[in-house]
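Quick note —
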Amino acid sequence: MSSSGVTLDAIPKVDIDKSGVFKYILINVTDKNKQEESPVTIVRGYAHCNYHSDILDEVEGKLHPLQCEVLGGGRISHDADFKRIKIYGYSQGFGKADHEVTANIIKDAYPKYTITISDEGY
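Predicted structure written out below.
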């Protein structure tokens, strides 16, 4: 357990806004004190963050002292009424996330949703 009390297995895999279009990042989280543990890959996306780096700042603040490595970013369009999530685009600062990996993680958290990915758009 890290000094903040956050353990890797207790971190929610997905934390995205309930609806709207917003930026997201795909992150590997590790505990530097437990090198033998595999990283946990998480998805975070918030409309109130203007930049992908703002999302990272927020996540690092919540998970400190765990270490966050951004694997890439993009955008999410979340339509809760129709149970649809579209993953697309890229981050200018972090590059494009692997949208397939992101989709698989989100599918576990939103099993009744239709999840689509696209390399189109920003």
